[in-house]
Amino acid sequence: MATGGGERFRDDLLDVKIYKRSDMNVIAAKGEIDLSNISVVEDAIDDVLARDLPLLLDFTGLRYIDSTGLNVLARVNERARQRRVPFAIAANPTVRRILGVLSLHTVFPVFPDTAQAREYFRSSDRAGFAGESDTPTGERGGDAGAA
Prior knowledge:
The chain has 147 residues and is an alpha/beta fold. The protein is 35% helix and 26% strand.
């Protein structure tokens, strides 16, 4: 993550931190994303997308995400594509399994940790943007659904 503290939003189920780095934005979510707190996630994403830097959603600490959270991911992907902002998700096995079952790992890049996601942004200076055909082949190959 970034050095120093980031902005922080918290409720009973979710803790969200925003790290605005010089080379990318990172939103780290821990806990549960559902209808009761989705606005916290949306507000954080709105804030960082305006910076036109790569966006990494760190969901490695997420225990649960419901359909409203998945819907937001689809909208974020579309907005990132429109702005030509690279977008990726680092997620734990539980979240990767959900994304895999819904084939969302074929729509946007999903990685098992933040280091691999950051490397994705760094490779080839990320000339492409979210949703282009350079989604990691390992994730497209189905291991996103593996636990």
